[in-house]
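Researcher: Here's my situation. A collaborator sent me these components and asked whether they could plausibly form a single complex. I don't have experimental data yet, so a predicted model of the whole assembly would be a useful starting point for our discussion.
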Amino acid sequence: MKEKAIIMWNHYRTAIPAFLAIPWVRGILLMLYYLAIMAGLLYLYRNGDFSTPPFVYQGF
Amino acid sequence: MVPYTDIVYFAISLNVLLPAFLFGWIKRLSKVWLVIATGIMLVIQYNAVQIILPGTSLLELWLLLGYAAIEYGLAGLFLFLRKRGKNRPLFYGAVLLCLTPLLAGRFIPLVDPSYQLVFAGLSYLTFRCLDVILGIHDGQIISLAPIPYLAFLLFFPTISSGPIDRYQRFTQDWKHERTWKEFLIDLDGAVHRIFTGFLYKFILAALIKTHWLDVAAAHPGFLSNWSYMYAYSLYLFFDFAGYSAFAVGFSYVFGIHIPENFNRPFLAHNMRDFWNRWHISLSTFFRDQIYNRFVFAALKGRWFKNKYIASYLGFLLSMGVMGIWHGTTWYYLVYGLYHGVLLILSDLVERTNKKKKWWNEKSFAFRAVSILVTFHLVCFGLLIFSGHLG
């Protein structure tokens, strides 16, 4: 049982990064990532106030 | 104007980033535009009037340009004298002069608060100036042309808060003409980091601040402080990592590959690992320029019988300086010394375990526990750093 789990774990550990490295898969995922960030920005700053909390390291 | 904090800054930046993109595309005038863009952005960023002492005010830009001119003169003079031979007192003098503006800016207001000599980014500029002085001393920098030096010192994406670049690394990018493929890779990296910056700083840090940090800060008590510790740690990380992502992304558009500042720091499995992942450009600077130099001098001069004592004092010294670099308040010094002590303990435990084999360092359980323990030690350090306990 444990050996089977290790084999599966090793399989997915190599298969998933290989799948994500396929150019069209990476392109689609990146596009979704960027769209999600834009949607988040639009939702949070929909009232027009785009200012953020003070940058902590600015003072140093 | 504070960089990367509001829409106006990004709207203005677009006016210098788009031409940079076009010049990169046609492979012409990229470096000329870098200088012009830096000039434009500095005029915008340093447009505040600063009252440096009662009755005397000055535009921040003049303070900055005056500082840059003095530092270039100092580095040029040191290079000229260094070529005549190594001279230790001269080197110490150059380092001291290089540090003088920052030391004066930090300590004079403690005596007389009416003097305000610090301008935005001074401490980061000091690192870059110091890097050049040390590079000249080590014989690694043998020429110092004014345009690359000033471009390195004043490069607008990193001027206010890093990441801290090195002169020799910067000049490699400065001299390099990007191929079409390299340009596309840079562009991909730039877009990715700018979006990551928006995610970290404008979404995650902003949400943590509004819905967690401010709420925890408003309620006194042990549990609220505990909650504040996690909230502040995550807020600081997303705030600073977001800023750094913007700075790296902007730099990539110009073909300058400034170092990354963060690499999943909360997954560190011990304190040394943490400092290889958190504010990397700062910790690398302190490791190379303070810790390594101190330990090397101590071993060469046989200052201590045990080599570990040299290393441990090196930890305390470099981390103590790192702490006080943040400011002259007590909790910054305590924060630095706290990390110095943790680095010593971390090394002691690791070495003892190698001898006594208490646990298997490669086991999953050990790694999980060590990540959890390190995370809490780091968070407690950041709670000290926040000043919330004072």
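Model: Some features of this prediction you could bring to your collaborator: Chain A touches chain B through 19 residues (CB under 8 Å). The first helix of chain A runs from residue 2 to 20.
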